[in-house]
Design a protein that fits this description.
five-stranded parallel sheet, Rossmann fold, 10 helices, 250 residues
Length: 250
């Protein structure tokens, strides 16, 4: 029985769509202001990891939740299949170079966890090699944390039925047709295998930075949930704009 993914993929029944979308708009403005202070203060950085099965809404999250942040202080990187150059280095090489500098907010659309997920599901590496990767990832995230990086790890939790509907939309909606990839349909056959690996990841890669499971069948609730989580944490840091540097009159 699932330990982490047995919760609902939809919003609580008490949430009204229009009211929640209005709250999200306010949260996006708050996130904009908090990111401006983060950038100016330059004492710490923020890393946001977005993981989820195909069509879970990672791109949509980036587009909507972070629509108000200043591009000068925020970057997004998508991790697709490793390139030949990537594979000539250790598996974290391609990830570490995109870790955020102080003052910056970095969004990972997929992440270093792909280097556990895909090799495990498709049996591309020996089990003992993959097992070590759990420890390397924990050490990597601890290193970032010790260096002043605030890490958020979001898993966008959708149902099989919702994924099927989104795949169908990609085949029929001209604005989303470009996203349709036949291999996504093939990967969906491994749903249960991916969920099992995610369960292992949640169990073994959350010592200091726990995962947040986001009910993501409804985009409006997903956006609210993530924006609220980010704003609450960033507000708790009590960040301040730095004092101006005063130049004495000569």
């Amino acid at each position: 029985m699932s330990k982490y993914l047995n919760g609902s993929t939809t919003s609580p029944s008490s949430y009204d769509k229009d009211k929640t979308k209005a709250k999200t708009a306010d949260l996006i403005l708050e996130l904009r202001d908090l990111q401006a202070v983060l950038y100016a203060e330059a004492k710490r950085s923020v890393l946001i990891v977005l993981q989820g099965i195909d069509a879970s809404g990672k791109d949509g999250t980036v587009k909507h939740v972070f629509t108000g942040v200043n591009p000068m202080g925020c970057q997004v990187h998508s991790f697709k299949a490793p390139t030949e150059l990537d594979m000539s280095h250790d598996f974290l090489w391609r990830v570490h170079q995109f870790a955020p500098a102080k003052g910056m907010m970095e969004i990972f659309n997929r992440s270093h966890y792909e280097d556990i997920l895909v090799p495990t599901v498709h049996k591309l590496l020996p089990k003992e090699v993959i097992k070590k990767r759990y420890d390397y990832i924990n050490s990597f995230e601890q290193l970032l944390t010790d260096s002043g990086t605030i890490i958020f790890k979001f898993f966008l939790h959708i149902s099989k039925e919702e994924q099927a509907e989104r795949f169908q939309e990609r085949k029929t909606n001209p604005e989303k047709e470009w996203k349709y990839q036949p291999e996504d349909m093939n990967e969906s056959k491994f749903w249960d295998d991916y969920m099992k690996v995610y369960e292992d990841i949640f169990e073994h890669c959350s010592p200091a930075i726990p995962w947040t499971i986001v009910p993501a069948d409804q985009n409006w609730y997903r956006n609210y949930f993530i924006a609220k989580t980010l704003v609450e944490k960033l507000k708790s840091l009590n960040m301040k704009y730095p004092s101006p540097i005063l130049i004495p009159n000569l």
